Automatic annotation (TrEMBL):
Family listed: Belongs to the class-I aminoacyl-tRNA synthetase family.
Domain of life from the UniProt record: Eukaryota
Compartments reported by the entry: Mitochondrion matrix
Keywords of the record: Aminoacyl-tRNA synthetase, ATP-binding, Ligase, Nucleotide-binding, Protein biosynthesis
Identification of the protein by name: Tryptophan--tRNA ligase, mitochondrial
Residue window of the full protein shown: 271 to 619 of 619
Leader sequence segment: none
GO biological process: mitochondrial tryptophanyl-tRNA aminoacylation
Enzyme Commission code: 6.1.1.2
One term under GO cellular component: mitochondrial matrix
Taxonomic source organism: Coemansia javaensis
Length: 349
């Protein structure tokens, strides 16, 4: 059977890149068939990865509130808790257990090659003025926990944005290494599923990806933004001109700013590929393009924002929804872990 797994950090409400790059794909996968035969049924697990969030020191109360807010936002985006198993990672202890077991067969060299780790290392070295970077061990082993997430459910498909593809390749390497070490075809090889908008860029610097951790709030749209905030951020987005009379074109290398807006428009209006959206918008100047993107963004995001707010008025209900998902996730994880523990010689049952 096909099994889908994906995760998101509890950052409070998601930003537009999270939504267009992955959440929307999770919503779509709920209603569609997977696999070469086009008719394969599948289960989908969506985890709010609060253990991963600990790699950035957070206030405990804030982390708990952000986790609940993320759950509300996911449901508002269309994640149906009856069709997707929606749960907090920390509610299923086998994630941490499998993380340990996989860490014990993963060479540190594989982790040192991860670009996200390398850039964190660089950032911290700069902050520390080139002195002792005092990097947390959790940042290095972060992708091992991610591999554990995916492999625990024997996931076959993992819908993510482009920035997670390398981590997923590592998960495949770890899976293959495990199967070989213990001479069992226990883990299927998980495949990344990308959308057309797998890399939404910052509105201020279109050469960097849109990110929740960007210190410039103007650089991202979040699913909590008011219509006025959405409008102001898009109006101030960095654009580039293609020469007199060029109009709107899609050319990410030459015109990253305009192309990012086209990509956002295309995703919001469901036009593919992006060049087709550019053709539709060709006659507009940059400020008309921004007006079109703003209109599309508000049409999609305002209902999600309002529904998130409505859901957050009843935190007990969100909590109950998560708990129901966690019962299902724990049952699957316990059965899977028993088999893994048996395989590597640990106590099981
Ligand atoms: P996170 O929480 O940073 O992001 C969640 C998802 O959003 C995608 N994404 C983007 N897509 C397009 N454009 C962007 N600018 C953009 N920014 C973020 C991410 O690729 C991701 O799919 N480590 C993961 C969470 C995780 C996970 C997993 C994912 C933990 N375990 C197992 C898949 C499978 C993360 O930090 O995602």
């Amino acid at each position: 059977v096909a099994r889908v797994f994906s995760g998101i950090q509890p950052t409070g409400v998601p930003q537009l890149g999270n939504y267009l790059g992955s959440i929307r794909n999770w919503v779509r996968l709920q209603g569609s068939a997977l696999g070469a035969d086009g008719a394969q049924a599948h289960e989908q697990y969506i985890s709010i990865v609060d253990l991963h969030a600990l790699t950035v020191p957070r206030d405990p109360g804030r982390l708990r509130a952000d986790t609940l807010e993320m759950a509300a936002a996911l449901v508002a985006c269309g994640i149906d808790p009856a069709r997707s198993v929606l749960f907090r990672q920390s509610a299923v202890p086998q994630h941490a257990q499998l993380h340990w077991a996989l860490g014990c067969i993963t060479p540190v060299g594989w982790l040192n090659r991860m670009t996200q780790w390398k850039s964190k290392q660089q950032q911290q070295q700069q902050l520390a003025g080139g002195g002792d970077p005092s990097l947390l061990a959790g940042l290095l082993t972060y992708p091992v926990l991610m591999a554990a997430d995916v492999l625990l459910y024997r996931a076959t498909h993992v819908p993510v944005g482009e920035d997670q593809v390398q981590h997923l390749e590592l998960a495949r390497d770890i899976a293959a290494h495990f199967n070989k070490t213990f001479r069992r075809a226990l883990f299927p090889m998980p495949r990344a599923l990308l959308t057309e908008s797998a890399r939404i860029m910052s509105l201020r610097d279109p050469l960097r990806k849109m990110s929740k951790s960007d210190p410039l709030t103007q650089a991202r749209i979040t699913l909590a933004d008011s219509d006025a905030e959405i409008r102001a951020k898009i109006q101030r987005a960095t654009t580039d001109c293609g020469g007199a009379g060029a109009g709107v074109t899609y050319d990410p290398a030459a015109r990253p700013g305009v192309s990012n807006l086209v990509a956002i428009y295309a995703a919001l209006r469901d036009v593919a590929p992006q060049a087709a959206a550019a053709a539709e918008l060709r006659s507009l100047n940059n400020s008309q393009l921004k007006a079109a993107v703003t209109e599309a963004a508000i049409a999609t995001l305002a209902p999600i924002r309002d529904e998130t707010r409505r859901l957050l008025r009843d935190p007990a209900h969100i909590e109950a929804t998560l708990r129901a998902g966690e019962d299902r996730a724990r049952a699957a994880a316990a059965a899977s872990w028993a088999e893994i523990a048996e395989c590597i010689g640990l106590r099981h049952h």
